[in-house]
Design goal:
Helix content: 25-40%
Oligomer: single chain
Number of domains: 2
Number of helices: 10
Order of helices and strands: EHEEEHEHEHEHHEHEEHEHEHE
Structural class: alpha/beta
CATH topology of the largest domain: Hypothetical Protein Tm841, Chain: A,domain 3
Radius of gyration: 18 Å
Shape: globular
Strand content: 25-35%
Strand order of the largest sheet: 10-9-8-13-11-12
CATH class of the largest domain: Alpha Beta
CATH architecture of the largest domain: 2-Layer Sandwich
Largest sheet: 6 strands, mixed
């Protein structure tokens, strides 16, 4: 009898809900605290959250309760899963993976909790790859290997209008070195060793966005890759980025346009953009 491996991730993976539903991926919501209100991120209005950030209101993030993982895992068991692969954002950025590990100890089937060391669609593509492999009836070890390949080889490119939100949230990591640069200098960032790291400094938004596309093309290195373009807040650059990627990376999949997790957006700030380059095995 083939294994039935369930795939779980968290909301920072940025998976569009319809895509997660299509592949049976269970998504646990990370929480936001805005003023005195704490709730799952998907219960907040995106536009209102952006206005709260712009107005200087204190916005913080909170990992899910252990119980949220426990009941999600139990639901998978009740649905007939023989193992669970649970993929989460970097443990250096959130205690989410710790809560997952604690819950996994209370489940009667094997639960493989994976600290991906990254976030956004690098996690999302890994979850999709895991779900496709699981859907083919593969054993848990192969599902784990499929996920691990994707998040280990994926690359995140990030544009932020200002580093102020990362500084406020304490997630600035190695990008601390870019603080104090002139207002017109826009930082490009990446995720390395589990945390935000500096990549480049470019004068002006348009040049910074163009540089981000150049870096994505370079990162693809002629390979077949999946691409995602994420945004936090409406931005006219998204369509241009997608068109450039289509033109310059014809071997890549159609760029997936996604709204960035509001949890990530709270740290990166309004106007932030991202490109995920994820090699296909």
């Amino acid at each position: 009898m083939p294994d039935r491996v369930a795939v779980v991730t968290d909301s920072t993976a940025g998976l569009p809900p319809e895509l997660a539903a299509r592949w049976g991926i269970r998504v646990i919501q990370i929480q936001l605290q805005v003023g005195g209100q704490i709730d799952d991120e998907n219960r907040y209005d995106r536009t209102e959250l952006i206005e709260s950030l712009k107005s200087g209101e204190v916005v913080s993030t909170t990992p899910p309760e252990v119980g949220a993982f426990f009941w999600t895992y139990q639901d998978a068991v009740a649905a007939g899963a023989t193992a669970i692969v649970s993929l989460h954002l970097s443990g250096k950025m959130s205690a989410t993976v710790e809560a997952a590990r604690e819950a996994s100890q209370q489940i009667r089937i094997p639960v493989y909790v994976m600290d991906t060391g990254t976030a956004n669609m690098s996690v999302g593509f890994a979850a999709l790859s895991a779900a496709r492999t699981a859907g083919a009836g593969a054993p848990a070890a192969r599902v784990v290997a499929a996920a691990e390949y994707r998040y280990a080889t994926s690359h995140e490119l990030i544009y932020v209008d200002t580093l102020e939100y990362l500084r406020r949230g304490g997630r600035i990591g190695g990008a601390q070195a870019l603080l104090g640069t002139a207002f017109s200098i826009k930082p490009l960032l990446t995720l390395a060793n589990g945390e935000v790291s500096p990549l480049a400094k470019v004068a002006g938004t348009r040049r910074a966005v163009a540089k981000m596309v150049d870096l994505a093309v370079k990162q693809a290195r002629g390979r077949t890759v999946d691409l995602a373009v994420s945004q936090f807040g409406e931005d006219e650059h998204v369509v241009w980025i997608a068109n450039q990627l289509r033109k310059r990376l014809p071997q890549a999949s159609e760029p997936l346009l996604v709204e960035a997790s509001m949890v990530l957006g709270a740290h990166l700030g309004p106007g932030s953009l991202g490109i995920t380059v994820s090699p296909v095995a």
